[in-house]
Amino acid sequence: MKLGRLNHIGVATPSIEASIAHYRDVMGALKIHKPFDLEAQGVKVCFVDTPGEGGTFGTQIELIEPLGTDSPINGFLAKNPLGGQHHVCFEVADIDEARKEFEELGKRILGPTRLGAHGTPIFFLHPKDMQGILTEIMETPKEGSHWSN
Amino acid sequence: MKLGRLNHIGVATPSIEASIAHYRDVMGALKIHKPFDLEAQGVKVCFVDTPGEGGTFGTQIELIEPLGTDSPINGFLAKNPLGGQHHVCFEVADIDEARKEFEELGKRILGPTRLGAHGTPIFFLHPKDMQGILTEIMETPKEGSHWSN
Protein backbone atom coordinates (compact mmCIF):
# COMPACT_ATOMS: atom_id res chain seq x y z
CA MET A 1 0.00 0.00 0.00
CA LYS A 2 1.06 3.57 -0.59
CA LEU A 3 0.04 5.90 2.24
CA GLY A 4 -2.38 8.54 1.01
CA ARG A 5 -3.70 11.74 2.54
CA LEU A 6 -4.77 11.80 6.15
CA ASN A 7 -8.32 12.56 5.07
CA HIS A 8 -9.74 13.15 8.53
CA ILE A 9 -9.45 12.47 12.20
CA GLY A 10 -12.63 11.11 13.74
CA VAL A 11 -13.61 12.88 16.95
CA ALA A 12 -16.43 11.50 19.08
CA THR A 13 -18.61 14.02 20.88
CA PRO A 14 -21.71 13.83 23.05
CA SER A 15 -23.03 16.92 21.21
CA ILE A 16 -22.19 18.01 17.68
CA GLU A 17 -23.94 21.29 18.45
CA ALA A 18 -21.57 22.01 21.35
CA SER A 19 -18.57 20.86 19.28
CA ILE A 20 -19.50 23.17 16.42
CA ALA A 21 -19.55 26.08 18.90
CA HIS A 22 -16.10 24.98 20.14
CA TYR A 23 -14.50 24.74 16.70
CA ARG A 24 -16.13 28.00 15.59
CA ASP A 25 -15.77 30.19 18.69
CA VAL A 26 -12.68 28.78 20.42
CA MET A 27 -10.63 27.34 17.56
CA GLY A 28 -11.67 29.78 14.84
CA ALA A 29 -12.55 27.27 12.13
CA LEU A 30 -13.58 29.12 8.98
CA LYS A 31 -15.59 26.31 7.36
CA ILE A 32 -17.88 23.94 9.21
CA HIS A 33 -20.09 21.76 7.02
CA LYS A 34 -23.75 20.95 7.60
CA PRO A 35 -24.28 17.98 9.95
CA PHE A 36 -26.05 14.91 8.57
CA ASP A 37 -27.17 11.49 9.76
CA LEU A 38 -25.16 8.47 8.61
CA GLU A 39 -27.72 5.93 9.66
CA ALA A 40 -25.86 2.89 8.33
CA GLN A 41 -23.05 3.64 10.79
CA GLY A 42 -25.22 4.83 13.68
CA VAL A 43 -23.72 8.31 13.85
CA LYS A 44 -24.54 11.92 13.13
CA VAL A 45 -21.60 13.47 11.26
CA CYS A 46 -20.21 16.99 10.86
CA PHE A 47 -17.00 17.86 9.00
CA VAL A 48 -14.83 20.77 10.06
CA ASP A 49 -12.23 21.93 7.54
CA THR A 50 -8.65 22.79 8.42
CA PRO A 51 -6.46 24.56 5.86
CA GLY A 52 -3.81 22.71 3.89
CA GLU A 53 -0.51 24.08 2.68
CA GLY A 54 -0.62 26.97 0.23
CA GLY A 55 -4.41 27.33 0.26
CA THR A 56 -5.10 23.64 -0.39
CA PHE A 57 -7.52 21.46 1.57
CA GLY A 58 -6.12 20.02 4.78
CA THR A 59 -7.09 17.11 6.99
CA GLN A 60 -10.67 17.43 8.19
CA ILE A 61 -12.07 16.90 11.66
CA GLU A 62 -15.00 14.49 11.48
CA LEU A 63 -17.26 15.09 14.46
CA ILE A 64 -19.37 12.04 15.26
CA GLU A 65 -22.28 11.93 17.71
CA PRO A 66 -24.22 8.76 18.56
CA LEU A 67 -27.38 8.19 16.54
CA GLY A 68 -29.62 5.95 18.62
CA THR A 69 -29.05 3.56 21.49
CA ASP A 70 -27.20 1.02 19.32
CA SER A 71 -24.60 3.48 18.05
CA PRO A 72 -21.13 1.89 17.89
CA ILE A 73 -19.65 4.95 19.60
CA ASN A 74 -21.80 4.74 22.73
CA GLY A 75 -19.14 2.59 24.40
CA PHE A 76 -16.41 5.09 23.59
CA LEU A 77 -18.44 7.95 25.07
CA ALA A 78 -19.26 5.93 28.18
CA LYS A 79 -15.50 5.72 28.78
CA ASN A 80 -14.82 9.28 27.55
CA PRO A 81 -17.86 11.39 28.47
CA LEU A 82 -16.32 14.59 27.09
CA GLY A 83 -15.56 12.93 23.78
CA GLY A 84 -12.13 12.53 22.23
CA GLN A 85 -10.03 11.09 19.43
CA HIS A 86 -11.88 8.09 18.03
CA HIS A 87 -10.23 7.08 14.74
CA VAL A 88 -8.02 8.25 11.88
CA CYS A 89 -8.80 7.91 8.16
CA PHE A 90 -6.26 7.58 5.36
CA GLU A 91 -7.02 7.72 1.66
CA VAL A 92 -6.01 5.07 -0.85
CA ALA A 93 -6.36 5.04 -4.62
CA ASP A 94 -8.05 1.61 -4.80
CA ILE A 95 -10.10 0.30 -1.87
CA ASP A 96 -10.26 -3.32 -3.08
CA GLU A 97 -6.53 -3.52 -3.56
CA ALA A 98 -5.94 -2.00 -0.11
CA ARG A 99 -8.35 -4.46 1.51
CA LYS A 100 -6.58 -7.38 -0.14
CA GLU A 101 -3.19 -6.16 1.06
CA PHE A 102 -4.33 -5.75 4.67
CA GLU A 103 -5.93 -9.20 4.57
CA GLU A 104 -2.70 -10.71 3.27
CA LEU A 105 -0.86 -9.06 6.17
CA GLY A 106 -3.29 -10.71 8.60
CA LYS A 107 -4.86 -7.45 9.74
CA ARG A 108 -8.40 -7.84 11.05
CA ILE A 109 -10.94 -5.86 8.99
CA LEU A 110 -14.14 -4.87 10.77
CA GLY A 111 -17.06 -5.74 8.53
CA PRO A 112 -17.58 -5.31 4.81
CA THR A 113 -16.39 -2.48 2.60
CA ARG A 114 -19.19 0.09 2.61
CA LEU A 115 -19.94 3.71 1.77
CA GLY A 116 -18.49 6.19 4.24
CA ALA A 117 -19.33 9.75 5.19
CA HIS A 118 -17.81 11.15 1.99
CA GLY A 119 -19.79 8.74 -0.19
CA THR A 120 -16.77 6.66 -1.21
CA PRO A 121 -16.01 3.06 -0.15
CA ILE A 122 -14.36 2.59 3.25
CA PHE A 123 -13.46 -0.11 5.74
CA PHE A 124 -12.14 -0.12 9.29
CA LEU A 125 -9.16 -2.03 10.71
CA HIS A 126 -8.99 -3.40 14.25
CA PRO A 127 -7.05 -1.10 16.59
CA LYS A 128 -5.22 -4.06 18.13
CA ASP A 129 -3.63 -4.77 14.75
CA MET A 130 -2.94 -1.07 14.07
CA GLN A 131 -0.78 0.12 16.96
CA GLY A 132 -3.79 0.86 19.13
CA ILE A 133 -5.50 3.08 16.55
CA LEU A 134 -8.91 2.39 15.02
CA THR A 135 -7.98 3.02 11.39
CA GLU A 136 -10.35 3.81 8.53
CA ILE A 137 -9.23 3.34 4.94
CA MET A 138 -11.13 5.40 2.38
CA GLU A 139 -10.97 5.52 -1.40
CA THR A 140 -10.07 8.99 -2.62
CA PRO A 141 -13.12 10.68 -4.16
CA LYS A 142 -12.92 10.64 -7.97
CA GLU A 143 -13.20 14.42 -8.17
CA GLY A 144 -10.23 14.82 -5.83
CA SER A 145 -9.69 15.06 -2.13
CA HIS A 146 -12.30 17.67 -1.29
CA TRP A 147 -16.03 18.17 -1.36
CA SER A 148 -18.64 20.82 -0.90
CA ASN A 149 -21.61 19.60 1.16
CA MET B 1 -8.04 32.62 16.90
CA LYS B 2 -8.01 31.48 13.31
CA LEU B 3 -7.64 27.74 12.94
CA GLY B 4 -4.41 26.87 11.16
CA ARG B 5 -3.11 23.66 9.63
CA LEU B 6 -3.47 20.40 11.50
CA ASN B 7 0.30 20.14 11.73
CA HIS B 8 0.43 16.66 13.23
CA ILE B 9 -1.35 14.04 15.24
CA GLY B 10 0.67 12.78 18.19
CA VAL B 11 0.74 9.00 18.43
CA ALA B 12 2.19 7.36 21.53
CA THR B 13 4.04 4.09 21.01
CA PRO B 14 5.99 1.73 23.22
CA SER B 15 8.52 1.35 20.39
CA ILE B 16 9.32 3.88 17.69
CA GLU B 17 11.33 1.17 15.94
CA ALA B 18 8.25 -1.08 15.69
CA SER B 19 6.08 1.86 14.66
CA ILE B 20 8.49 2.82 11.89
CA ALA B 21 8.23 -0.73 10.55
CA HIS B 22 4.41 -0.45 10.70
CA TYR B 23 4.20 2.86 8.84
CA ARG B 24 6.79 1.74 6.29
CA ASP B 25 5.78 -1.88 5.65
CA VAL B 26 2.04 -1.92 6.40
CA MET B 27 0.94 1.66 5.62
CA GLY B 28 3.42 2.39 2.84
CA ALA B 29 4.68 5.75 4.10
CA LEU B 30 7.18 7.17 1.62
CA LYS B 31 8.99 9.52 4.01
CA ILE B 32 9.87 8.74 7.61
CA HIS B 33 12.18 11.21 9.31
CA LYS B 34 15.10 10.35 11.57
CA PRO B 35 14.07 9.83 15.22
CA PHE B 36 15.53 12.19 17.84
CA ASP B 37 15.36 12.74 21.58
CA LEU B 38 13.32 15.69 22.84
CA GLU B 39 14.69 15.57 26.35
CA ALA B 40 12.85 18.65 27.63
CA GLN B 41 9.57 16.85 27.00
CA GLY B 42 10.71 13.37 28.03
CA VAL B 43 10.04 11.76 24.67
CA LYS B 44 11.81 10.28 21.68
CA VAL B 45 10.19 11.67 18.51
CA CYS B 46 9.84 10.47 14.91
CA PHE B 47 7.83 12.26 12.22
CA VAL B 48 6.09 10.34 9.45
CA ASP B 49 4.93 12.39 6.46
CA THR B 50 1.57 11.99 4.79
CA PRO B 51 0.90 13.65 1.45
CA GLY B 52 -1.15 16.82 1.16
CA GLU B 53 -3.38 17.83 -1.71
CA GLY B 54 -1.72 18.33 -5.09
CA GLY B 55 1.75 17.30 -3.96
CA THR B 56 1.82 19.60 -0.93
CA PHE B 57 2.80 18.58 2.59
CA GLY B 58 0.03 16.98 4.62
CA THR B 59 -0.54 16.45 8.32
CA GLN B 60 2.32 14.51 9.89
CA ILE B 61 2.18 11.63 12.30
CA GLU B 62 4.38 12.38 15.31
CA LEU B 63 5.43 9.12 16.91
CA ILE B 64 6.40 9.59 20.55
CA GLU B 65 8.08 7.00 22.75
CA PRO B 66 8.83 7.51 26.45
CA LEU B 67 12.32 8.79 27.25
CA GLY B 68 13.09 7.75 30.81
CA THR B 69 11.00 6.73 33.78
CA ASP B 70 9.58 10.23 34.30
CA SER B 71 8.23 10.58 30.75
CA PRO B 72 4.82 12.29 30.72
CA ILE B 73 3.50 9.62 28.35
CA ASN B 74 4.24 6.66 30.65
CA GLY B 75 0.75 6.98 32.15
CA PHE B 76 -0.88 6.94 28.72
CA LEU B 77 1.02 3.79 27.73
CA ALA B 78 0.18 2.09 31.02
CA LYS B 79 -3.50 2.51 30.05
CA ASN B 80 -2.88 1.85 26.34
CA PRO B 81 -0.02 -0.66 26.10
CA LEU B 82 -0.20 -0.87 22.30
CA GLY B 83 -0.02 2.92 22.00
CA GLY B 84 -2.64 5.14 20.41
CA GLN B 85 -3.81 8.65 19.62
CA HIS B 86 -2.26 10.96 22.21
CA HIS B 87 -2.75 14.56 21.06
CA VAL B 88 -3.43 16.81 18.06
CA CYS B 89 -1.41 19.89 17.07
CA PHE B 90 -2.75 22.92 15.20
CA GLU B 91 -0.65 25.74 13.80
CA VAL B 92 -1.20 29.43 14.57
CA ALA B 93 0.51 32.49 13.12
CA ASP B 94 1.37 34.04 16.51
CA ILE B 95 1.85 31.85 19.60
CA ASP B 96 1.65 34.69 22.16
CA GLU B 97 -1.59 36.00 20.74
CA ALA B 98 -3.09 32.48 20.71
CA ARG B 99 -2.03 31.90 24.31
CA LYS B 100 -3.64 35.16 25.39
CA GLU B 101 -6.89 34.26 23.62
CA PHE B 102 -7.11 30.81 25.22
CA GLU B 103 -6.37 32.35 28.63
CA GLU B 104 -9.13 34.90 28.14
CA LEU B 105 -11.51 32.05 27.31
CA GLY B 106 -10.58 30.37 30.61
CA LYS B 107 -8.89 27.39 28.96
CA ARG B 108 -6.25 25.74 31.14
CA ILE B 109 -2.77 25.88 29.59
CA LEU B 110 -0.32 23.20 30.70
CA GLY B 111 2.96 24.89 31.58
CA PRO B 112 4.92 27.62 29.85
CA THR B 113 5.26 28.23 26.14
CA ARG B 114 8.34 26.28 25.06
CA LEU B 115 10.11 24.95 21.98
CA GLY B 116 8.42 21.93 20.42
CA ALA B 117 9.59 19.12 18.18
CA HIS B 118 9.72 21.37 15.11
CA GLY B 119 11.80 23.99 16.93
CA THR B 120 9.00 26.56 17.11
CA PRO B 121 7.13 27.71 20.24
CA ILE B 122 4.28 25.51 21.45
CA PHE B 123 1.96 25.03 24.41
CA PHE B 124 -0.57 22.38 25.42
CA LEU B 125 -4.18 22.84 26.48
CA HIS B 126 -5.94 20.67 29.06
CA PRO B 127 -8.07 17.96 27.41
CA LYS B 128 -10.94 18.61 29.84
CA ASP B 129 -11.27 22.13 28.41
CA MET B 130 -10.85 20.94 24.80
CA GLN B 131 -13.62 18.37 24.24
CA GLY B 132 -11.53 15.55 25.67
CA ILE B 133 -8.55 16.16 23.37
CA LEU B 134 -5.06 17.05 24.56
CA THR B 135 -4.41 19.92 22.16
CA GLU B 136 -1.04 21.37 21.17
CA ILE B 137 -0.83 24.83 19.65
CA MET B 138 2.29 25.47 17.57
CA GLU B 139 3.58 28.56 15.82
CA THR B 140 3.97 27.96 12.08
CA PRO B 141 7.66 27.71 11.18
CA LYS B 142 8.91 30.91 9.53
CA GLU B 143 10.05 29.07 6.43
CA GLY B 144 6.59 27.56 5.98
CA SER B 145 4.76 24.50 7.13
CA HIS B 146 7.39 21.89 6.32
CA TRP B 147 10.91 20.90 7.24
CA SER B 148 13.66 18.59 6.24
CA ASN B 149 15.32 16.87 9.21
From TrEMBL, chains A, B:
EC number: 5.1.99.1
UniProt entry tagged with the keyword Membrane: no
Start and end residues of each VOC domain: 5-140
InterPro entries: Glyas_Bleomycin-R_OHBP_Dase, MeMalonyl-CoA_epimerase, MMCE/EMCE_epimerase, VOC_core
Record flagged with keyword Transmembrane helix: no
One GO MF term: methylmalonyl-CoA epimerase activity
GO biological process: L-methylmalonyl-CoA metabolic process
Coiled-coil segments on the chain, per record: none
Entry keyword set: Isomerase, Metal-binding
Similarity-based family: Belongs to the methylmalonyl-CoA epimerase family.
Protein name in the entry: Methylmalonyl-CoA epimerase
Organism: Erythrobacter insulae
